[in-house]
Amino acid sequence: MTTDGRRPDPSPALPDTASFPADKVDEGKSLYVLRCAECHDLGKVIETPAVKQQGPDLINVARRIDYAWAKDWILDPKKLDPKTKMVMPGLTPDDVEKVRMFMWKVSMEASPAPPR
């Protein structure tokens, strides 16, 4: 993995989103809406008004960012990049797991893997 979380080539395997518990994915959606949607779109699934968008659209996150790295980033972005404008969203490690499950499931469904 790169220091900024971008997926290296060859990329590690993507998580099996079918194994994510539905209740945790649902909780992750609620947490995303409360904590992340203030600044980030998630494609057309969760849209943030343009005036509030401070961060990138996360709809393609699963294809761009390493799943494991994302946990550390969400928990404490300033620790990984002191110059980042992202604020700590105030999520517990358990909350972050749920948000990641939701984001990766939506992202992978929106952008399926290319055929090999």
Characterise this structure.
With 116 residues, the protein is mainly alpha-helical. The chain has one domain (20-110): Sandwich (Immunoglobulin-like). The protein is built from five helices and no strands. It has helices at residues 22-36, 61-64, 67-75, 77-80, 93-110. α1 (22-36) crosses α5. The longest helix is centred in the last third of the chain and has 18 residues, at 93-110. The chain is globular and about 35 Å long. It starts with 21 loop residues before the first helix and ends in a 6-residue tail after the last helix. The model has no long low-confidence stretch (mean pLDDT 85).
Topology of helices and strands:
Layout: H1 22-36, H2 61-64, H3 67-75, H4 77-80, H5 93-110
Features:
mainly alpha, Immunoglobulin-like, about 45% helix, about 120 residues
Structure, briefly:
This protein is mainly alpha-helical. It is built from 5 helices and no strands.
- Compute the separation of the termini in Å: 22 Å
Please trace the helix and strand order, writing H or E for each element.
HHHHH
Give the tally of structural domains: 1
* Quaternary assembly: single chain
Q: Give me the CATH architecture, please.
A: Sandwich
State the low-pLDDT regions, or none: none
Structural class of the helices, strands and pairings?
mainly alpha
Q: Kindly provide the name of the CATH class.
A: Mainly Beta
Largest sheet: none
| Number of continuous helical runs | 5
Mean pLDDT: 85
Number of strands: 0
CATH superfamily: Cupredoxins -  blue copper proteins
What share of residues are in beta strands?
Answer: under 5%
CATH T-level topology: Immunoglobulin-like
Radius of gyration equals: 14 Å
